[in-house]
């Protein structure tokens, strides 16, 4: 089966990317006297975390916008699998210990020069997190490092801070802002606002702007803030590089008659990802006489339990656990997959997905998708138009959706075309990074830019 985007879609894609290049999206724009200097400090909990590659590629896209990016992780991720593009970022990242002599000197300096700001930031941080053991202890742990980051960012001439996740990274940005005056923003993804919303209102109130990745998240934030701050809560989708996650032109092995129907699931092996329901769905499909091979890309705490479940169901030979993969390895799996399934569920501890980037990668690669009708996912996957949605935790519904695609190659092709079109036009990394970079500029210059980008 050869999957192609309709001519109109390709023309629109080409026009959008030509305009993007003209505006310096794909190529770094030349420096001019009128262009304000933009040096943005990116903050995240851990770096380089392979399950959060969307942060890495957003930073790279920012640099293509002419933004100087400084990386300030709260912790260094210890991993043996690192994307090649992350290596230069790791080498120049501002990793700091929890405590050190330079950190202590910084604290003494702020206490001497800005005692009111120092005590006020610490007091607000602790007071706002009372009642949340995780956030309160996290606040105590991050405060020494955040104060030192404030000093380093001032020394580096940082003009704006952007934190990924509304939890600890946004709290650190809040402290830095209180001490240094550098404006900040943060992106709210999923569990960071659904699991625990202590201090969310304070973070939003002090931020220059806030970026929920979906309209669903925007409503959660505004509900928590009693409807306030709507002018600075701006939806900007995460995105993928559609020049890397390209439409595939070759038929899959199954379409060539060289193997079983290939089901792919990408993500951490964790309760919130719902892989247990996909394994059960595969068991049901085998009972119906439909041979599927299920591939899991990623590792995590549930690996042993999921392997045991597959073996108990008699499916061990049909379940393939690939572990952590680099981007090029994921792309290879996507190009051989007949369907990508993302069976997300709310977890027992309150975690919830936002809009999984793996769905954007799959749809950008012209792979039909089955996903849960949850959180912001319906803003990407329109049921019956760009893919199929199933109720969270419903293995029978997942099996039925996969079986429908199994029997209807024309439906797979239609979803592949429509999915690619949606990602190119609404979830393209470069175009959405340009939106975010514009807000960095207006925040750094003190010029408010109210409004929001709708998906």
Tell me what you see in this structure:
The chain is an alpha/beta fold. It has two domains: 35-239 and 428-444, Rossmann fold (3-Layer(aba) Sandwich), CATH 3.40.50; 261-426, Rossmann fold. The protein is built from 17 helices and eleven strands. It has helices spanning 7-22, 53-64, 86-92, 101-113, 115-128, 133-156, 168-180, 191-194, 200-206, 215-224, 275-287, 303-312, 327-336, 357-364, 395-407, 409-426, 429-444; strands at 39-47, 68-76, 160-164, 184-188, 209-212, 261-266, 292-297, 319-323, 339-342, 369-372, 388-390. It has a six-stranded parallel beta sheet, with helices on both faces. A five-stranded parallel beta sheet has the order 2-1-3-4-5, sandwiched between helices. α5 packs antiparallel against α7 (168-180). The model is unreliable at 1-34 and 448-455 (pLDDT under 50).
Query: Using DSSP, what is the number of strands?
Result: 11
Q: Kindly state the mean pLDDT as a whole number?
A: 91
The SSE order reads: HEHEHHHHEHEHHEHEHEHEHEHEEHHH
Helical residues, percent: 40-55%
CATH fold-level label of the largest domain: Rossmann fold
Q: What is the 3D shape?
A: elongated
Q: What is the CATH architecture annotation of the largest domain?
A: 3-Layer(aba) Sandwich
Structural class: alpha/beta
Over all CA atoms, what is the radius of gyration?
A: 23 Å
Provide the β-strand percentage band: 5-15%
């Amino acid at each position: 089966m050869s999957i192609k985007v309709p001519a109109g879609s390709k023309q629109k894609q080409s026009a959008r990317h030509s305009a993007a290049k003209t505006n310096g999206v794909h190529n770094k724009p030349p420096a001019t006297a009128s262009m304000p200097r933009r040096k943005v400090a990116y903050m995240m909990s851990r770096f380089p975390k392979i399950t959060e590659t969307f942060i890495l590629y957003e930073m790279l896209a920012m640099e293509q916008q002419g933004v100087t990016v400084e990386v300030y992780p709260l912790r260094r991720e210890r991993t043996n699998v690192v994307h090649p593009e992350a290596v230069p970022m790791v080498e120049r990242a501002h990793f700091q210990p929890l405590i050190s002599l330079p950190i202590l000197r910084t604290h003494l300096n702020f206490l001497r020069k800005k005692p009111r700001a120092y005590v006020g930031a610490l007091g607000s941080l602790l007071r706002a997190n009372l009642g949340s053991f995780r956030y309160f202890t996290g606040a105590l742990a991050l405060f020494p490092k955040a104060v030192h980051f404030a000093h380093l960012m001032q020394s580096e001439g940082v003009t704006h801070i952007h934190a990924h996740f509304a939890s600890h990274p946004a709290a650190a940005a809040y402290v830095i802002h209180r001490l240094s005056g550098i404006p900040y923003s943060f992106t709210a993804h999923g569990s960071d606002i659904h699991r625990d919303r202590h201090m969310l209102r304070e973070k939003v109130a002090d931020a220059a702007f806030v970026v929920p990745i979906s309209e669903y998240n925007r409503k959660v934030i505004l509900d928590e803030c009693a409807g306030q701050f709507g002018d600075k809560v701006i939806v900007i989708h995460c995105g993928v590089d559609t020049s890397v996650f390209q439409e595939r032109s070759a038929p899959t092995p199954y379409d060539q008659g060289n193997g079983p129907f290939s089901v792919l699931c990408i993500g951490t092996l964790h309760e919130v990802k719902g892989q247990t329901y996909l394994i059960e769905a595969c068991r049901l499909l085998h009972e119906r006489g439909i041979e599927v091979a299920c591939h899991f890309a990623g590792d995590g705490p549930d690996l042993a339990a999921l392997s045991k479940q597959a073996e108990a169901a008699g499916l061990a030979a049909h379940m393939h656990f690939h572990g952590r993969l680099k981007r090029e390895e994921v792309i290879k799996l996507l190009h051989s997959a007949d369907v990508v399934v993302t069976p997300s569920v709310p977890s027992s501890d309150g975690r919830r997905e936002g809009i999984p980037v793996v769905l954007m990668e799959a749809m950008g690669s012209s792979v039909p998708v089955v996903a849960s009708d949850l959180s912001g996912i319906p803003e990407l996957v329109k049921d019956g138009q760009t893919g199929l949605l199933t109720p969270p935790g419903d293995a029978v519904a997942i099996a039925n959706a996969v079986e429908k695609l199994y029997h209807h190659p024309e439906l797979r092709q239609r979803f592949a075309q429509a999915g690619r079109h949606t990602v190119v036009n609404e979830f393209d990394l470069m175009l959405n990074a340009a939106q975010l970079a514009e807000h960095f500029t207006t925040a750094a210059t003190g010029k408010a830019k109210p409004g929001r980008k709708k998906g």
